[in-house]
Specification:
heterodimer; A: mainly beta
Chain lengths: 261, 771
């Protein structure tokens, strides 16, 4: 946020400019990346295990096969995931339940990674509507998810926005530090002032109720790791133990869609 | 016969010992304005005895009765000789004439002494308004802090801004004083202009090391800015009109010779051109700052003088009705100088300092305001006892009561947010100090002293017991005024100087410093919404220990000055932030902090030409600044953001003829330390960058050339005017301000690095007048 304010202030007055440059960086030895989700919607749920790509090469999904991946819950249920392709592991029978705590366990070679996430109780996404608002110097349209935060601090949410079937790459997340008990009025505003919803776009919003550790993950990723001018670039705060990047999230999921008029 | 001779000798000895001593004391002033002159040297001709006038122009020298010629000199002033016959205490008011004032051009004078070869003070730079006047700076604004950045050991934290990094320190480690009041946000418009209106400034002194015992509270430097008192002889108005701002300065006597006033104001108006636009997305934006300086001083008899000064400044940034941020400082100081007899000078100050910012958001379903403020009430007492010409003792105390109100969020019913107020924080910062400047021998000068810092964190408030991972184990409730924790830190202040010959010396100093106010800023560049916090049960005082060694030589009758200084600073309780720390809008901010050590060392070279048609300097600094914090970079030492290996500045001012003055400066610095990714991965198609270390890379090197010329248009007795014009970044170098990353639009599997430059070549023109 800070750098966009500085840039805005001076775009008004000065001669600032941007250009693409050639950057040489040292490539670190690859790290493991884990992405795992369990929701309250019917499965299968997917856990991916891959490696980081060196900075200057084109990104490719480098799946790591042959790992043992299990998900268990706090009631003693457990399932070993099946590898569908290298690095992609899926559940067969598991169905996520609100309130339960899920544990992920991965063994690959001599390494072990574990994580734990508790699925919060679902807060309903009541509806969606479109609002016009100002983004820097332009007026844009954005979608507002309508839901009422339950009283008592500790709720956190994440939203994925699909515009005409394509995932909007911006991250949307919120907790109730300042909005406890209130009905949401914040729109999913795309940061780029040139991006707006157009009439006849189909917008679909997936609202996820997430736990505190996963909120921390998305918050820290957005602050420090998405390359858009963070004050102190760093890796996100992961809930995975053992030295892997990524996250394991047990969350509720509810979708609504709307045609922009 | 021999016995008689012996008796004669003995009696003469007795007569010599019985010679009474008396004191010559008084104030050194500028004739024509009555302004007091700091650091004027008062020496006894033919003897190696002398003293220096203090911050108020006061001096006192005690000698045995007899006839003397006193020589009074100060940089930029004609040296004065006064013959006196001392038989009783003598009050001497000296009026100094401007150097070269009668001749109308700069002349080389043998007595143009720049700096004290003899004195123990090292790590210090003084700037007179004359020197600031001819250095080209951003948009032609004469900026005290930007000029200091052209000296070795002093860098901007981020190029173009005025947050200072002195000897590897961060921007909050500088004690910036305006007439003794601490200024919390010494920058306008996000750091591009400084808070100090140079028309009202008399003197700026920067201590990079060897800080005398009367200063304390910040680790890396002291920037002591003194305002003019106000001409007590005649009225004067001067002003200026530039591309970005307009300013005016009015001063004059209230009662000739006895009291005077000074008022100056400055406002930027570049944003007024925005209002001319037809585009409503442009004409409703505003970006401006203004500041006001006011001062009154009264001479109440021969022993007392009273000064009242104030500063008020405000910045405003708004984008239509949806976003507004305004911030600023207000300070006021009431000072009373009193002399208890000719050898004893006292200054009592009452100081108030206030900083706040207000944020207004009216967009995206929310309509709320945030107010954050801090307030200091400060009482200071300084006594100076001029025991004899060899010993000058200073002692005093300083008490500051800090109130911090980190954030009050008000929205109301339809605002989309709940009204929230973070708890206020209170601290009492006390210090006592004593120091003696001792002229031990003809060659040795020693300054020794100590300062005791006592800080207490006070209630009312909740304080926490924290686990190593930042989670809160217990909350302790304290009542108003209750002491939560007290920290006592003694600080040693030592300085030695050894005179090798009349034009060269060797100096060494050791200083400890303690800091109890900490700026929580992830950018380190000083954004107005950065939060100040006081030490408490979790946040310990930061400490520094600095040793420095220097060699000083003047050449060709003080035409050239060469300075070489090296330093090593060890820092404790340095603060950094957990990964993903939430620093904005966090009621339990102290749980996001991590602590560790720091170290900074380097060598500074400066060659300066002070007189003649061509003046200026060349400075080079080699330095390193690092931190080691558990939880960051795997606990290994890493470069601080402000670490920059090489720093070169070349500044030249050339008086072409009596009407034209040309100046140029060229700076070159290694880029800041920066974290760059060493890998990447995608989640849901979004690219995430992987960082394997903190600050392991450098931004590209920064260099730029600024040129300017000033031409005297009119120079009459009652009116003078000049025109200044020039270019900032004359060869339009695209210096990198920040590097960001994005997916290539046509092939998202490829990553592009994008460099943003803030300023290309920027021309400026400004018109200044005086009557």
């Amino acid at each position: 946020m800070k750098h966009s304010i500085i840039a805005a202030a001076f775009f008004i007055l000065t001669t600032s400019c941007q250009k693409v440059i050639d950057l040489k960086v040292k490539d670190a030895s690859p790290k493991y990346v884990i992405e795992g989700n369990v929701t309250n919607l019917p499965g299968p749920y997917t856990v991916t295990l891959s490696r980081t790509t060196p900075f200057n090469t084109s990104w490719q999904f480098k799946g790591v096969g042959g790992a043992t991946v299990t998900i268990s819950d706090n009631l003693g249920n457990s399932e070993t995931l099946q590898e569908s392709q290298a690095g992609v592991y899926q559940t067969t029978g598991l169905t996520g339940v609100e309130g339960r705590t899920y544990a992920l366990h991965i063994t690959v070679g001599e390494l072990t990674f574990t994580a734990s996430s508790t699925m919060p109780h679902q807060v309903n996404l009541d509806s969606l509507y479109i609002r016009e608002l100002v983004n820097f110097t332009k007026t844009v349209k954005a979608a507002v998810p309508v839901f009422t935060d339950p009283k008592g601090q500790g709720n956190a949410y994440r939203f994925n926005q699909y515009i005409n079937g394509r995932l909007d790459k911006s991250l949307y997340y919120q907790n109730d530090d300042f909005t406890d008990g209130l009905t949401n009025s914040f729109a999913l505003l795309q940061p780029d002032p040139d991006s707006t919803l157009h009439v006849n776009d189909r917008v679909e919003v997936d609202m996820q109720c997430i736990d505190k550790a996963i909120y921390e993950y998305w918050f820290s990723l957005d602050q420090s790791s998405n390359g858009d001018g963070s004050d102190i670039p760093a890796n996100p705060v992961s809930n995975i133990q053992g030295g892997a990047l990524g996250y394991f999230s047990a969350h509720t999921s509810q979708r609504r869609s709307l045609l922009v008029k | 016969m021999r016995l008689l001779f012996c008796l004669l000798i003995i009696s003469l000895q007795i007569r010599a010992q019985e010679l009474p001593k008396h004191t010559i004391s008084g104030t050194v002033r500028a004739s024509g304005s009555g302004e007091s002159i700091l650091r004027a040297t008062v020496t006894v001709e033919g003897k190696n005895i002398g003293v220096t006038s203090n911050d108020y122009g006061f001096f006192s020298i005690t000698l045995p009765d007899g006839a003397y010629t006193l020589v009074i000199s100060a940089v930029g002033w004609e040296t004065k000789s006064i013959n006196i016959y001392l038989h009783d205490n003598l009050q001497l008011q000296t009026n100094m004439e401007q150097q070269g004032a009668r001749l109308g051009e700069a002349t080389v004078t043998a007595q143009a002494r720049g700096r004290s070869i003899r004195g123990t003070q090292m790590g210090v730079e003084h700037l007179s308004t004359k020197e600031i006047k001819n250095v080209p700076v951003l948009f032609g604004e004469r900026d005290v802090l930007k000029t200091l950045q052209l000296l070795p050991g002093v860098k901007p934290v981020s190029q173009g801004t005025s947050g200072l990094s002195v000897r590897g320190g961060s921007s909050d480690q500088n004690l910036i004083l305006l007439d003794e009041a601490p200024v919390y946000n010494a920058a306008h418009l996000l750091g591009f202009f400084s808070t100090f209106n140079s028309d009202a400034i008399k003197d700026v002194t920067l201590y990079k090391g060897g800080m005398p015992a009367q200063y304390g509270g910040r680790l890396s430097s002291v920037v002591d800015v003194r305002m003019n008192d106000g001409n007590n002889q005649d009225f004067h108005v001067n002003g200026g009109l530039g591309l970005i701002s307009a300013k005016i300065n009015v001063e004059g006597p209230l009662q000739k010779d006895k009291s005077s006033f000074l008022f100056s104001a400055r406002r930027t108006y570049a944003d007024m051109f925005l209002k001319l636009s037809n585009d409503s997305s442009v004409n409703k934006n505003s970006l401006y700052f203004y500041d006001l300086n006011a001062k009154l001083n009264f001479t109440l008899g021969s022993k007392d003088k009273l000064y009242l000064s104030g500063y008020f400044g405000r910045d405003n940034m708004a984008s239509q009705d949806v976003f507004g941020l305004n911030w600023g400082n207000a300070t006021s100081t009431l000072r009373w100088n009193h002399t208890f007899g000719p050898r004893f000078f006292s200054n009592t100050s009452l100081i108030y300092s206030y900083y706040n910012y207000k944020l207004r958001i009216n967009n995206n379903g929310s309509n709320f305001n945030v107010l954050s403020e801090l307030r200091d009430w400060n009482i200071k007492e300084e006594l100076q006892f001029y025991l004899n010409p060899r010993n000058n003792i200073r002692a005093g105390f300083n008490a500051i009561y800090h109130t911090l109100n980190p954030g009050v969020l008000t929205g109301g019913a339809k605002s989309g947010v709940n009204d929230t107020a973070f708890q206020k924080r209170f601290g009492l910062e006390n210090a006592v100090f004593v120091n003696n400047s001792w002229k031990a021998s003809d060659k040795w000068n020693i300054s020794y002293g100590a300062r005791l810092s006592i800080f207490s964190a006070l209630g009312k408030g909740d304080f926490y017991k924290m686990a190593p991972d930042g989670s809160i184990l217990d909350t302790l409730h304290y009542k108003g005024g209750q002491v939560v924790k007290t920290y006592v830190n003694p600080e040693l202040r030592l300085a030695f100087s050894y005179q090798l010959d009349p034009a060269s010396s060797l100096k060494v100093s050791y200083v400890d410093n303690t800091q109890n106010m900490h700026l929580i800023s992830s950018t380190n560049a000083g954004f107005p919404t950065d939060q100040w916090v006081v030490s408490n049960n979790l946040i310990r005082p930061e400490k520094s220990h600095q040793v420095s060694l220097g060699y000083y030589k003047n050449f060709r009758e003080d035409t050239y000055e060469v300075t070489v200084e090296t330093y090593y600073k060890a820092l404790e309780n340095q603060i950094d932030y957990r990964d993903g720390a939430n620093l904005l809008g966090n009621g339990t901010l102290e749980t996001e902090l991590l602590y560790g050590k720091g170290r900074a060392y380097g060598a500074e070279w400066l060659v300066r030409k002070k007189t003649g048609r061509l003046t200026g300097w060349v400075g080079y600094t080699w330095s390193k600044s690092q931190k080691q914090i558990a939880g960051i970079n795997d606990g290994k030492w890493y470069n601080a953001v402000q670490d920059r290996t090489h720093d070169i500045s070349v500044v030249g001012m050339y008086k072409l003829n009596p009407k034209w003055m040309l100046s140029a400066n060229w700076v070159y610095t290694t880029g800041n330390a920066v974290s760059l990714p060493s890998g990447k991965y995608k989640e849901d198609g979004r690219t995430v960058y992987y960082y394997s270390e903190r600050n392991g890379y450098r931004m590209p090197a920064y260099h730029r050339l600024d040129l300017s010329a000033t031409v005297q248009l009119k120079e009459k007795k009652h009116f003078s005017s000049e025109l200044s014009f020039g270019v900032y970044n004359a060869y339009n170098r695209n210096n990198a301000f920040i590097i960001t990353f994005r997916d290539n639009k046509t092939d998202p599997s490829k990553t592009e690095a994008v460099q943003t430059t803030l300023f290309g070549a920027v021309p400026f023109i400004s018109y200044n007048f005086k009557f």
